[in-house]
Amino acid sequence: MKIMVAIKRVVDYAVKIRIKSDKTGVETTNVKMSMNPFCEIALEEALRMKESGVASEVIAVSMGPTQCVDTLRTGLAMGADRAIHVDAPSTLYPLTVAKLLKALVQVEKPGLLILGKQAIDDDCNQTGQMVAGLLNWPQGTFASKVVVDKEKKAATVDREVDGGLETLCLDLPAVITTDLRLNQPRYATLPNIMKAKSKPIKKMSLAELNVDLRSDLEVVQVTAPPVRKAGVILSSVDELVDKLKNEAHVI
Known about the structure:
Residues 23-213 form the Electron transfer flavoprotein alpha/beta-subunit N-terminal domain. The chain contains seven helices and eleven strands. The protein is an alpha/beta fold. The protein has a single domain (2-224), classed as 3-Layer(aba) Sandwich (Rossmann fold). A nine-stranded mixed sheet has the order 9-8-7-10-6-1-4-5-11, with helices on both faces. Helix 2 (68-78) links the parallel strand 4 (57-64) and strand 5 (82-87). Helix 2 (68-78) crosses helix 5 and helix 3 crosses helix 4 (127-135). The protein starts with a strand and ends in a 5-residue tail after the last helix.
């Protein structure tokens, strides 16, 4: 069984985000970029499945400009067998990504598609659900534990919900999105980083996948959240009660 893992290049989680002066987005020039943390978890889970004998091959895929190749190299250094880069504009919305993933799945025919539950740059949490709908595959979102039964061609997914844990049994092929507590991603070692340079990265165009990039969404403006007011020290309970009654609604 092949496992396909979607990974995204995002602004590094440790970088303080700055809004562009024209308010069209966030500043990415000369900013450290890295693999989305949830995508790292997804890739780690796929690699563990391969090491346990469940999967025969792990394919990392990414969509965007040429710089995405660097993120794919990181995935290859972690242990992915090969990678696919879809050359596309830097701004892609969830439905478009889902359509591209559907087209790639039809080409590669994996038994399992694993994604991070969301990307830390937009926090949409939509792509996994959308691609499952387009493929008409069962889905297990927010997975905190995944067990694949190779013989029965099924996966058992424990997912975190508001009331605790929910266990799903999915027939393969299926889509799984990963939560933080699923695993701890490995670090790429220097020997594996060197080996990754010789691993194949297949480049595909939008024309080859026959996907229309038109979107119904338009970003009008990106603004930073308002600065929070400084706290105040009150001298009595009566003063606190007065402020809660008269000023608590003021933002």
